[in-house]
Amino acid sequence: MFNLLKKSFSEAVLKITAACESTCSEKEIEQKINEFEVSLLQANVSEGVAVKICEKLRAQVKPLTKKSEIEKIFRKTFGDALIKVLDLPKIDLLKEIEKQKPFIILFVGANGVGKTTTIAKLVNYLKMHGKKCALGAADTFRAAAIEQISMWAKELDIPIIKHKYKSDPAAVAFDAVNYAKANKIDVVLIDTAGRSNTNTNLTNELKKIKRIAKPNLTIAVVDALTGNDGVNQVAVFEENLGVDAIIISKLDADEIGGGIVSLAYEFKKPILFVGTGQTHTDLEEYDKENILNRILTKEK
Ligand SMILES: Nc1nc2c(ncn2[C@@H]2O[C@H](COP(=O)(O)OP(=O)(O)O)[C@@H](O)[C@H]2O)c(=O)[nH]1
Ligand SMILES: [Mg+2]
């Protein structure tokens, strides 16, 4: 996990220490920090964060800094800058759910990012906390999507409200909410279709679902692997629909690593959970220290 970002960091430390005698010259420091900035960008860290981190390093690593001190300074400066970026507003989901019954969650995200799988994971989490859930299969764009979410509903043993393939997704959402009201359901999770994120039909469809279902929470699911495109995807949903929180999927498969840092920096919205696999138990609550440790832990 996060191997490229880890490597950027450990190589930057190695290169700068190798370039220095007992102390470093200003030119060497400048050159190595510039190289580090480029490697951060290559590891999907957005420009704003990379620039900030490197400014801090420039301020901390001085020409008379002892070679033996450099790794410590790099680690501390990089770690402090990252933890600041990863420190996001929080939503206490279980507490929010207590306030409103049924609590309605709308999931949006580009095609294939992991929305449906994430919904299954969240259902499992909510069930473990004693919440009664129901699903709205409002991705009516693909027949297979309705089958896929129906299989999750079966596996997790919860009700699902679905209509025919190609039917109006807003009508599915409407029925799911009414079902929940009539059946004392705590949480309704509404799946939606993802196409290209600039598709106007999809945007209008999602707006209609939102108008009709009146979700308490709109969650954008983003694939950790998409890097800067993930930032663009969320920006489009934020602009057209409004996004309250983010869930990042596929962290287990993220060999690069900067995506989560960029999403945190660009939106400063709560990241509720991270997805770490393909089964319904592969969901972790977002924990900034944990993410930081994963970034800073040396590769084996
Ligand atoms: N490795 C990994 N795969 C995931 C994760 N979440 C989803 N996937 C996989 O990504 C693919 C697309 O997921 P799906 O939920 O259908 O995406 P959707 O089109 O956004 O609904 C599936 O093969 C999932 O098993 C995750 O956290 N880790
Ligand atoms: Mg889906």
Automatic annotation (TrEMBL):
Protein name (Swiss-Prot/TrEMBL): Signal recognition particle-docking protein FtsY
GO molecular function terms noted in the UniProt entry: GTP binding; GTPase activity; signal recognition particle binding
A GO-annotated cellular component: plasma membrane
One annotated GO biological process: SRP-dependent cotranslational protein targeting to membrane
UniProt cross-references to InterPro entries, sorted A to Z: AAA+_ATPase, P-loop_NTPase, Signal_recog_particl_SRP54_hlx, SR_rcpt_FtsY, SRP/SRP_N, SRP54_GTPase_dom, SRP54_N_sf
Family assignment from sequence similarity: Belongs to the GTP-binding SRP family.
Location of this chain's protein in the cell: Cell membrane
